[in-house]
Design brief:
The chain is mostly beta strands. It contains three helices and ten strands; from the N terminus they run ββββββββββααα. The strands form three sheets. The protein has a four-stranded antiparallel sheet with strand order 2-1-5-6, with no helix packed on it. Strands 3-10-7-4 form a four-stranded antiparallel sheet, with no helix packed on it. A two-stranded antiparallel sheet has the order 8-9.
């Protein structure tokens, strides 16, 4: 069986694919993952708003581009550095030999429990219809131009204020 990191694990009932730093990670509640360095203090929490795929039980929900109404929260454990990677560049007969090394800055995260909150149909109907005993506030009346200032008052203001002509430059 070919296993891909983007495909949900067959043995777990809940997993998701999240995006962090332009890379995709398959996570499940309780997983600990290393991602590119995030600007967050150890002990604080981070939310992933871009979830590409949600696997919950027998249902798989694929987002286009992301799953709506779902955020996955993770707790920052520590900031670490990855292993040293050496880069060698060599050109024969040209006296070019470059030796460089680099280490990636990483953040260790622990994924908190997540999932969709499924509501019963009776709860949705109760939210849509207001209770009979509940009183509503009266609506505010809209003010129109006529109620703000009568037309006769506008005409008298225009007659009282003479228009001044601007002097032109010569």
């Amino acid at each position: 069986m070919v296993e891909c990191f983007a495909v949900p694990k067959p043995d777990q009932s809940l997993s998701a694919v999240v995006v962090s730093g332009g890379k995709q990670y398959r996570v499940a509640p309780g997983d600990r993952v290393l991602v590119d360095r995030l600007a967050a203090e150890p002990g604080s929490s981070v939310k992933f708003g871009r979830i590409l795929l949600l696997h919950e039980g027998d249902t798989i929900e694929v987002g286009a581009p992301g799953v709506d109404g779902l955020e996955i929260e993770a707790r920052v454990l520590a900031h670490k550095r990855g292993p040293r990677i050496e880069v060698l560049r060599y050109k024969s007969k040209k006296r070019v030999r470059v030796h460089r090394g680099a280490r990636a800055d990483l953040t260790a995260l622990e994924i908190m429990p997540f999932g969709r909150n499924k509501k019963d149909e009776s709860d949705e109907e109760a939210e849509e219809t207001p209770k009979k005993g509940a009183a509503r506030k009266p609506r505010a009346k809209k003010e129109t131009k006529d109620t703000k200032e009568p037309k006769a008052a506008k005409e008298t203001k225009a007659a009282k204020e003479p228009k001044t002509a601007k002097a032109g430059k010569k």
